[in-house]
Design a protein that fits this description.
With about 500 residues, this protein is α/β, with parallel strands linked by helices. About 40% of the residues lie in helices and about 15% in strands. Strands 3-4-2-1-5-6-7-10-9-8 form a ten-stranded mixed beta sheet, with helices on both faces. Helix 2 packs across helix 3 (about 105-125) and helix 10 crosses helix 15 (about 410-425).
Length: about 500
């Protein structure tokens, strides 16, 4: 039995329980968490995907060896919590798009109420030796709500998206209350060291914390922080790419390409993915390097995301217009420069597409990690691999470094030059880069991610005591709202952190 498995159950909590019925789609929380849940007798707790006039009872079931607990959320609060605060405020803020942040008091109040509700329902299921691992920006205050209910379990938090700098966080109304909630966790994990440094900077300047080698001190409270880059199951994805069906599909696509170079991008429809700038970089390639015309095809696979949100509808319209413009400008009767698919594809299908593509173009304007970059590399033929072009603003760039071709996604010439370089890169250089990328990905795999995080969570730092915690000296004007032990948090109307029967 592993060290972590002997510690008691692992309780993973996320906004939405991942796809655990059958084969999941590419990327996402489900892929990264499956091995941790199975190895640690886990329970995955989250939203059921349904809303109701009142919050429903928790539904427990076992799916593919994973125990799952789901909860219907109240309709009256859900849109304010999810589309309003989580995705209308925190998502753009964490992706450095302050211009898109929409803050409304009613959204924040609903966000707090939903977190309080989830805490109450979860508390009824907990055992004293359970370890709780909370995921992502939807649930930042969850530990604070659990502590208010008397929970003394070890609780960790992992932020899958980027950590914004102090200057952006400080523009968020009630930012100290929100960020102070993190001090109720035992471990706070980020994707990169850059994210960790930004969190430390904020905590020192706004929460009165001091920084240590392995975390932060806030009065008598010690919070461990660390960079835990999410990885993929490399061997599993290699298996997808080398399955008979995938190899057959890859050969079929190569035949259809008829010697042309295929560039591939795979992203959700989201402004953070840099899709408009990516298309502009491809257009610049065709302008700047005329030999690329009729010899290169760009396949962009973009499943629709948050299609009910007007900003995403407008973004989709703009992207489709740009694709049509490029095809109208450069296309011929027997060559379409840019093919654009609005559908989600299974991992096995994506693996075949990756393998048939000489260039993987992954250029988000900001991304926590980006698993597509890793999946593309894993799918390649090691004897004739493709080339990864990666945004320097993706978290994966901190790991992959110069083994990928790093670009500035805001500079279309930089993207175009990298595309042209990748087209003509020698086989020897491609093999060397691919070998080094694969070695790094194997070292920092999905399994390494969950094991290293759980080792930190199982460390010797004491769980939060039942009493309040004294916070170190804070900046002038700091009220301490949301920070343990400083004062009673300024809670939304109707919000009470107490045990309530489901």
């Amino acid at each position: 039995m592993s060290k972590t498995a002997a510690k008691g159950r692992l309780i993973c909590v996320s906004n939405r329980v991942g796809t655990v019925r059958g084969a999941p789609l590419a990327g996402g929380l489900a892929v990264a968490l499956s091995s941790a849940l199975i190895a640690n007798r886990g329970l995955w707790f989250g939203w059921s995907g349904k809303t109701a006039s009142e919050a429903g009872a928790v539904v427990l079931e076992e799916i593919n060896g994973i125990n799952v607990a789901t909860l219907d959320l109240p309709t009256a609060d859900f849109d304010h919590y999810y589309a309003g605060y989580a995705n209308g405020c925190l998502w753009p803020l964490c992706h450095f798009r302050l211009d898109l942040v929409q803050f409304a008091r009613e959204h924040y109040d609903a966000y707090r109420r939903i977190n309080a509700l989830i805490a109450r329902r979860l508390a009824d299921l907990l055992k004293p030796d359970d370890r709780i691992w909370v995921h992502d920006y939807h649930l930042i205050p969850l530990a604070e709500e659990l502590r208010a209910l008397g929970c003394r379990n070890r609780i960790g938090f992992f932020l899958h998206i980027p950590t914004p700098p102090h200057e952006l966080l400080a523009a968020l109304p009630r930012h100290r209350e929100l960020m102070g909630s993190l001090l109720h966790y035992d471990v706070v994990g980020l994707q990169t060291e850059a994210d960790r440094h930004r969190l430390h900077d904020y905590a020192v300047r706004e929460l009165g914390c001091s920084v240590t080698d392995d975390g932060m001190n806030c009065g008598t409270r010690r919070i461990r922080t660390g960079a835990f880059p999410v990885g993929i199951d490399v061997d599993e994805f290699v298996g997808y790419a080398t399955s008979p069906r995938a190899l057959q599909e890859s050969r079929r696509m190569s035949k259809l390409l008829d010697g042309r170079t295929q560039v591939i991008g795979v992203d959700r429809l989201d402004y953070s993915k840099g899709l408009l700038r990516r298309a502009a970089g491809f257009e610049r390639l065709l302008e700047k390097y005329p030999r690329a015309q009729r010899n290169v095809e760009f396949l962009q696979v973009t499943p629709i995301s948050r299609g009910e949100v007007r900003a995403y509808q407008d973004f989709r319209t703009e992207l489709e217009a740009l694709a049509s413009h490029i095809n109208g400008r450069f296309g011929t009767f027997d060559w379409t420069p840019l093919r654009y698919l609005n559908k989600a594809l299974p991992q096995r299908t994506l693996a075949a597409l990756y393998r048939a593509s000489r260039i993987g173009l992954v250029t988000p304007i900001r991304d926590g990690m980006n698993l597509v970059a890793k999946e593309y590399v894993a799918a390649q033929d090691p004897e004739d691999p493709g080339v990864l072009i990666l945004s320097s603003f993706a978290g994966a760039a901190e790991q992959m470094g110069d083994d990928a071709l790093l670009v500035n996604p805001y500079d279309p010439d930089d993207v175009a030059d990298a595309l042209e370089r990748a087209r003509w890169m020698s086989l020897e250089e491609r093999i060397e880069r691919h070998r080094d990328l694969m070695a790094g990905m194997r070292r920092q795999s999905a399994d390494h991610w969950q094991r290293s995080y759980l080792e930190a969570l199982d460390g010797d730092a004491p769980a939060v005591p039942a009493g309040h915690i004294t916070v170190a000296a804070a900046p002038a004007g700091f009220t301490g709202k949301g920070v343990p032990g400083t004062s009673t948090p300024n809670r939304p109307a109707g919000h009470r952190a107490q045990a309530v029967s489901p």
